[in-house]
Structures are given as C-alpha cells and as structure tokens.
C-alpha cells in the first residue's frame, strides 16, 4: 500500500453526497483554559516548619513558562543552612507531634489533603501546564486526578500498616529527603509524600528547578490543611540544594526520581552510610507489536506511549519493535496519525503535544534529532504548524535505525520514536532487553499466551499488554538495571518507608 492510498482513505467524505469537505482538514477553534482565577505570587519562599521563610542568602531563581518563554515567578534558592533548618524542623515534628498522633488521625490529615487537592484541582492543573508546558488535557485529566488518588490510597493505609506486613511490626524510618524531576511535578510529589506520611515519617522535599510552582501551591495547601508544623517541608533550588539534602547527616532515607546520571552520583554519596534509598531513574521502553494484534488499537497505544507529555516520561515507549511483515503498514498508519496531532498552546484544550519543559531540554532533544540524522536514520516529522515562540518540537519518527545507534540506546526524553523490526518473539525480547535500562515495556498481540511468554522474557519493572501508560496508586512502579532500585506505589511503596521488626 502506498502512502497516498492511506491518506486518501482517511480523509474521504463519509458519503458521496456529503457536504463535509474532509480533504481540506478542518481547523479547530481555539479553546483556551483561562488562567484568570489562578493567583501566582511574584515570589515564593521556602516552606519550613509550617511557615514560609526567606532563604538564608536571599537568592532567588526565575521560573519560565516554556510555551511563551515568559518569566512567571521566582523561587527561593535553599542553601545548606536552609536545608539544615528544614531537616531540624522535620526531626522535631517526627519526634514530637507527628509520632504522638494515632495512625487514624494521621490518616485523616492525608484524606484532608486529598480532598483539598480535588477542590483545587483546576488551579493546580493550570499551574502545572503553565510552569511545565504539558497540555491542560493531561494535567487536568491525568496528573491531578492521580495526585489525589495517591493521597486517598495511602491515607487508607495509615491505620492498617499491621495488615500490610502481617507478623511484623512496621515502624517509620524518620526524616525522609525527597528529590523529584520536572516531568510530572505534582504527581512525583504525591508518589513521595503520600506513602511517607502514611507510614509516620516526616519529609523534606525538593521539586525540580523548572517546575516548582505546584509544589509551592501544595505547601500552601498543607498549611491550610492544618498539618502539624515540620511534617512537610519544601525547599526549592537546583542540584546543589538536592545534594545538601542527600548529604545531610540527620536524614534517614533518600527517595530520588530523576536521571540515571544524577542517580549514580547519589548512590555513590550514600554508599557506606546507613541511609536507606530508592532511586527511580531513566528508561528506554520497548513496544513489541506482533502481526496478530489489533493494528489500529496498537497505533493509538503507540501514539500514547511516546507522545504523551511530549515524551518526557521515564517509562515512555520510545522504541517500537514491529513484526517485519506488518512494518510498512504500521509505519504508514503511524505517520498518518502523527499528522492529526495538534502541537501548541498547553492551555488549549485541543492541544495534544505541549511545550518542551525547558530551553535546556529543548536543546537536548534537538541535538538527538540531529544525531539521528548523523547516524543514518530516516527522520519523519509531522507537518503541523507550531508557535513562533516557546519550545516546541513536532512529533518525530526515526526509521532505518539499528540497535547500536545512540538514538536507540539513550533516553531522548522527547517526542521521538525509533522503529525497528523483528521476525521471532525471541528476537523481539532480545532487542527489547538490549539497552542499559529496564523500566517499562509494552506488548501488542491477540494471544494471551504470547503476552505471558514475552512478558516473562522482558527485564522491565512494568509491562503493559495491549495498552500503555496506565497508572494506578495500587500498583508498584520501578526499574531494573540502570532504571533504578526500589519500587513506589502500592504495598511495595509502603515497604520503602518502614523498618520491619
Ligand atoms: P535530573 O536528574 O537532572 O534532576 C532530578 C532532580 O534532581 C532535580 O530536582 C534536580 O534539581 C536534582 N538534582 C540534580 N543534581 C543533583 C545532585 N547532584 N544531587 C541531588 N539532586 C540533584 O533529572 P531531570 O532532568 O529533572 O528528570 C528527567 C529524568 O528523570 C529522566 O531521566 C527520567 O527518565 C527520570 N524520571 C524517572 C522516573 C521514574 O519513576 N523512574 C520518573 C520521572 C522521571
Ligand atoms: Mn517553569
């Protein structure tokens, strides 16, 4: 089948008499979400011991809206002294009020936070899209609902920990230092804070420097919820602030989500200390598509797997492995579908792909696009229009690639998919496993037995079958190899925040 045949079938009028002219491709009218109700402060302080406090050195850094390149606010830069103050507040809360509360009352606070997140969901969604560039459709329908779901889920465990670990006595670890990335800012905060509090710990959390807005709004919510002072502390800053947390002597556990490079630095710093740690790092997920799968559904799944959140997803399915005899057809269908994706204003409800999170990431992704060409790949990008300012990249497909290419081995963390073919299930498994990562993968087939056979062979923390990027607070998440150590979510996520006696 030639490319033009497929295009023609897709846009043909529904009946010969139809007045609808699909061939000219309708434009969507803009449907922007209004940011008018969202009150963003000009400047945010550190949230330590239940109060907003100025940073010791008085330094601030700007946060940019990546869709407009405009500065939207500034955050305080926490120094070693500020981190120390936050850890002391967390220690005091841990030894005092928080520990003396009954588990049931602790649970009530977490439920209250969950309900207040739902009440303020719209503000949080808009802020998340403005500060980070993700489409409002995703922040509104995926991120924020999942944030609330995590707090609800872990609130329920607070007074049932004995049942989670039968025959053992679970005890909180103490003060937890938590460092999170910019791709799912509030969701990563929820993954960290909800289980920590449910198990009776106190926390010092640092959001990523390009996306600290919703974390500071969360600090305001925590204050409004009346949580005892010092239980949740939020300090803003860049890598230096993060390493002050990692290296603080009075922290009992480090929970880190971010790049494999920084994960390795952290692991080195923690070696030989008695701090516990979990590391959720990078990925290069494989999507294995067999000839017997429902192809159109699979194409939708692949689109969701790689272009969701601009491809800024650790578990993104960034490598398609398609059975050789259906490869041409699948590639044409993918290209066809790419043309319908709308790239642009994150606040527009029609937008499928928003802005790349920061200038730095924009440059990184672009350098991978150039590298792909240098490595000899064929590059296909959709022809849609993109805004003149802001950091936007059209959805991209690399074909004619090989396993040893850097674009196949390294995490691009952008809207770019590589396509390879395979003949047998064993070849697919081998190619899927042949990267340094092991976070996530997907299998599309009509045969349940094949799902189990391939699933067993994949060395990935998460495997989806005939779908992708489905998340739920009850199910554990985490990686093998360079994708990290430990699990978050579900019962496994509780285990990471208790000592069992
Ligand atoms: P990053 O590692 O650069 O930064 C992550 C966080 O660590 C930020 O808050 C940053 O300020 C902080 N940091 C930087 N240097 C530090 C240091 N030396 N010590 C302590 N903290 C430091 O990663 P990123 O670019 O923000 O995020 C993208 C990466 O995160 C991708 O590789 C992605 O795969 C990964 N990620 C993984 C998961 C997962 O669950 N496995 C989830 C989301 C993102
Ligand atoms: Mn920003």
Describe it for me?
The chain is α/β, with parallel strands linked by helices and 501 residues long. The protein has two domains: 3-30 and 283-465, Aldehyde Dehydrogenase, Chain A, domain 2, CATH 3.40.309.10; 45-281 and 483-500, Aldehyde Dehydrogenase, Chain A, domain 1. Helices cover 40% and strands 18% of the residues. It is built from 18 helices and 20 strands. It has helices spanning 3-11, 80-95, 97-100, 103-119, 121-132, 136-157, 161-164, 185-198, 213-224, 239-246, 260-270, 295-307, 327-338, 359-374, 406-409, 425-433, 448-457, 490-495, and strands spanning 43-44, 46-48, 51-53, 60-65, 70-76, 170-172, 175-179, 202-206, 232-234, 253-257, 276-280, 285-289, 317-323, 378-381, 396-399, 416-422, 440-444, 462-465, 484-485, 498-500. The strands form five sheets. A seven-stranded mixed sheet has the order 14-15-16-13-12-17-18, with helices on both faces. Strands 9-8-7-10-11-19 form a six-stranded mixed sheet, sandwiched between helices. Strands 1-5-4 form a three-stranded mixed sheet, covered by helices on one side. Helix 6 (136-157) packs parallel to helix 8. The longest helix is centred in the N-terminal third of the chain and has 22 residues, at 136-157. The chain is globular, with a radius of gyration of 23 Å. Mean pLDDT is 95; it is low at 1-14. It binds nicotinamide-adenine-dinucleotide (NAD) and manganese (II) ion (MN).
